Amino acid sequence: MDKLNAMYTFVRVVELGSLSAAARSLQLSQPAVSQQIVSLEQQLGTLLLFRTTRSVTATEAGQRYYQQIKPILAAVVEVEDALHGLSQRLQGNLRVHAPSGFGQAHIAPLAVAFQQLHPELRIELLLDDRLADVSAEGIDVAIRFGELHAPGTVARRLGSMQRMLVAAPRYLATQGTPQSPQELSQHPHVRFSGAAIDDTLTLIGPQGATLIPLRPVFRANNSFALLAALEGGLGIGGAQRPLIGRQLAQGSLVRVLEEYHYPPMALHAVYPAARFIPAKVRAWVDYLARSLESVDGMEVGNASGEKPEA
Fold it and tell me: pLDDT (tens digit, 9 = 90+) per residue, 156-169?
């Protein structure tokens, strides 16, 4: 048995929670993956995985083994990269997680271009609006908005995103255009499902921050669904500036209360904390930082610092 390969296989099984998923990820047959795990357990003299017909989970010994060998394997990859000059010739799997709306509009095209620059990379892009567990799900880089609370990770700030109030011209033509933040309370509101449940909104204006009570009539957990509701004339709502360039240009959405805006929302690249960060991770994050400079509505100043999360 090649013990190092068996260790890599075990890590993928734990992260993906499935022998078949690990086999697909590693481009091996499922029996080959099973045999590597069995051989590893026999050599260690302990059971590493609980197996059922539906899932695979680590035993207490398996979880401890996983936590101890993962940084060792990352260090091995980094050393091999340095020895073989792979910092320019990136290889292997790169698993990326991003919010659905921003990810579809901006991260997906960048991932395609990055893979074309590095054809030996195998990129997997996961798009949804949940807070993914980077370590448990085997994610190399997660793109996240807002405040970060992810122990055991490193966060690199890529910039901040502008958000603004918008509405469809036909809505404003029939319902009127608010002239002050306080008048927003009289209008139906379109809002992201993950926003604060107390139905208030903070806007920044010439006199500072203003807190406004809202009357939401439509919520969604997807940015494009919210834009469809706004373009359909359901009310007034906030939108991410990088996602509404076409709508503003075509006039299907217009700004409301232009002197006011949402507090800036920081954008970070988050990845597991380790002594050795794989070259493919550093290259991808550097590429993101450079590429996002050209996105309308993104402010990318001070995008170089890394911040470890406690």
Answer: 999 898 999 999 99
Is pTM, for the whole model, over 0.70? Answer: no
Write down the residue that tokens 């990859």 correspond to: 77
Which listed CATH number (3.40.190.10, 3.40.50.300, 3.40.50.2300, 3.90.780.10) goes with 92-161+265-299? 3.40.190.10
268 in Cβ contact with 144 (< 8 Å): yes
Fold of 163-255: D-Maltodextrin-Binding Protein; domain 2 (3.40.190)
Helix, strand, coil share of the chain (percent; to 5)? 40, 25, 30
Q: Which residues of 160-187 are buried (b: 16+ CB within 10 A; e: fewer)?
A: bbbbbbbbbeebbeeeeebeebeebeeb
Distance, in Å, from the CA atom of 194 to the CA atom of 130, rounded to the nearest integer, reads 9
